[in-house]
Amino acid sequence: MKKYKLKNHFKGLKKGTHFYLIAESEFIGIKEYILRTKDLAVRISINESELNRHFTLMHSYASKED
């Protein structure tokens, strides 16, 4: 699972807030991403440009037991 960190204040959320990428979809060339905060309390839906502008990829989680 990919983990992102907020670069600056965005839609009432504080800089440094950690998010998990829950889902990504594409329809007619427009990508949409669903992110949830680390505590799963907040869910946001953003497009690709907002993701690139406001979020930094921290690291990806992969199952090491496989």
From TrEMBL:
It comes from the Bacteria. This is Uncharacterized protein. It comes from Cytobacillus oceanisediminis. The lineage of its organism: Bacteria, Bacillati, Bacillota, Bacilli, Bacillales.
